[in-house]
Task: structure prediction
Amino acid sequence: MVELRTGAERPIEPPAVCPGCAGEIDRSQERWRCAQPADCGRIAAILYAAGRDQLDIDGLGERYVRALVEAGQVRDVADLFTLDHARLAQAAGSEKRAAKLVERIEAAKALPLSRVFCALGILGTGRGMSRRIARHFGTMEAVRAADAAAMTAVELVGATKAAGIVAQVAELGPVIDKLAAAGVNLTEPSAATAGPGDGSQNGDGEREGPLAGQTVVVTGRMAGALAAYDTRDKVRELIERAGGKSASGISGRTTLLVAGEKAGGKVAKAEEAGIEILGEEAFAERIAAFLTR
Result:
């Protein structure tokens, strides 16, 4: 407000160059970005790709990533899959740590397309959007073949976002080729094995599966058969794969509440609203076919 000014204010000068790398700034959109994001934030991008909700390469911390990047051994996410025990041991300074990292990297090759796509760090996408894109197209090949119009068919993707995603996927073509050459899975399981009960879509574009047509809220800590789903993001992915929609709070659209340990006040709200409530074991039985995928 004008009356709060003291006279000591200074005009805000927009940056002339990227604060991260002193390179050119992309001013084509409302949010300015570095024109060379791959070079600017290489270490941060690799750390993001290796994160728990992306490739889940546990133990690959900043010190090791920095050593690998500075040695010229890793320039993008695909290079992680070319690392052998010797190079990892050199970066980690430990044969034992290197062996564990080799195991985690090998395990990451079998992750679904949605996790790999998210690891690419495409602006305008995250775990939820990556799942929608992977589920819609089924394979990385189909994603790469999609133009902006085709991308807008994905839930919550508008024309501007679609154009940006398509352009970035094209730019990442060489990286995606390297991922394929390294044996990384580039398909989404539910889409690749489409059929009744697979959480795929029928001919009318409607989701199928045991949770088809349902909006599911999960509260409390998961245990038993669901113990591996120890983050909200893993639970959301499971629900969506089984054909449902995940929500964080009780609303008029909620059709099912899954109550884990220390469920809290959402149970009372669901009871009052007449919403179906399942415990962990009953929910696990309902979606049993999806727990091992």
User: Anything to note?
Assistant: Confidence is low (pLDDT under 50) at residues 191-200. The two ends are 56 Å apart (CA to CA).
